[in-house]
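Tutorial handout. Part one gives the primary structure; part two gives the three-dimensional structure as tokens.
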Amino acid sequence: MKKMLAAAVIAASVTAAHAQEERGNVITTNVLGVLIGSLNAEYEFLLNQSAGISIGGNYWSFTIGDFTLRTTGFGVAYLLHPGAEWAKGFYFGPRVGVTMVTGENTSGGTT
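Part two.
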């Protein structure tokens, strides 16, 4: 079920990224993260050809033995795009976010 939901989110993100790019805003996600149980997405409001403000969220869950760890977070970033094209290629900039972590031992306790 999780894999089907992840695939639907990725498909929607790719479709939405194409549609939003025409207006100058971008939706991004890490499609390879799904392979390790990580889901994330960001929506970037482009301010001009070389800068934008993004908001995003993430979820990651993995199990090692009897222990399951889950993280959920969100954040805001100011992104600078040094290339000549709108929001293409490499970017950098400051980011502020919050991440919540929970762990569960399947043989009993929660931390």
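Part three, for discussion. The first strand starts at residue 25 and ends at 29. The two ends are 26 Å apart (CA to CA).
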